[in-house]
Design brief:
mainly alpha
């Protein structure tokens, strides 16, 4: 006979079944998307500041000339190419060009839901979607003609596909990781840092992998394809290092970079967060064999 606990669990499952129905998912995501749009519509027509003006000016040039013009700037070309096509359809006014960034920011809501659900389940998916819909960072850059909302969107895809392909061991996600990584690298140089972090994450992933040799081969192939695809832009990046889109700025030395990082660590709040992150990572690694996902 069923115990009271079993009956309660069954009733709870029946009561929550509607949360996982497609119609509920569509309705919930639609509501979050609409809320995100309303939150981020204010200020979409505000005038450009200097970086936006430079971005729109570069994107207004003939498509084939944009990569060479970016040799005097500091960014890869993908966002400028997308903005070029967007302006051809919707115009080059402030509200029009801000609209492209708004699209990427709003798209982060369903993509965030997908990422959280794919990795950690339905609850995590909804939490991630709510965070994407209300993120101050995305709200701020949804109103700028810059590439940062696209960077966030692509970073979500890169992180999710990396974990599925190389941590969970599902090889079907490898192509998605490669494509998203290439797109991110051609959107902003920050993508280099994310992929270096992914490479470093392969070390603990290998420690718990059932077949380390197979993991190493897949990683070499995937990262190798990404590197080859990015190679044509490396020569432009090298030239950009000597230039800057901010003429009042300067190139920091290695000593200054180390000093600034050390200054962050001297802040007690940052130190606590670092210690918590390291402890959580070690704890997760130790518990991995017991909680490993298929």
């Amino acid at each position: 006979p069923a115990t009271q606990v079993d009956v309660a669990a069954a009733r709870s499952g029946v009561g929550r079944e509607w949360l996982h129905r497609p119609v509920t998912t569509v309705a919930g995501l639609t509501g979050l998307v609409l809320a995100s749009v309303l939150l981020r519509l204010e200020g979409t027509g505000i005038w450009y500041w200097i970086d936006e003006a430079l971005t729109v000016g570069l994107a207004s040039q003939p498509l084939t000339e944009i990569p060479s013009l970016l040799q005097l700037d500091g960014s890869p070309p993908l966002y400028y190419v997308l903005l070029h096509g967007w302006m051809a359809l919707f115009g080059d006014g402030e509200a029009s060009t801000h609209g492209l960034s708004l699209v990427f920011a709003v798209a982060a809501v369903p993509v965030g839901w997908w990422a959280g659900r794919t990795l950690f389940g339905s609850r995590a998916g909804w939490i991630t979607a709510v965070l994407a819909a209300t993120s101050p960072f995305l709200t701020y850059f949804a109103r700028e003609s810059r590439m940062y909302s696209l960077v966030t969107l692509l970073a979500l895809v890169v992180a999710t596909t990396f974990l599925r392909a190389f941590v969970h061991g599902d090889t079907r996600w490898t192509t998605g990781f490669v494509v998203a990584s290439i797109a991110l690298l051609y959107t902003h140089n920050w993508g280099i840092h994310l992929l270096v972090a992914c490479g470093a994450a392969l070390v603990p992933a290998a420690l718990v992998a059932e077949d380390r040799a197979a993991l190493a081969r897949r990683a070499l192939r995937a990262f190798g394809v990404v590197a080859l695809a990015y190679l044509p832009w490396v020569w432009v990046l090298v030239g950009q290092i000597g230039e800057t889109g901010a003429p009042w700025s300067y190139t920091p030395t290695l000593r200054e970079a180390v000093r600034d990082i050390a200054a962050l660590v001297r802040d007690e709040r940052v130190l606590v967060l670092l210690v918590a992150a390291v402890a959580g990572g070690i704890g997760g690694l130790l518990a991995w064999p017991r909680t490993r996902l298929g």
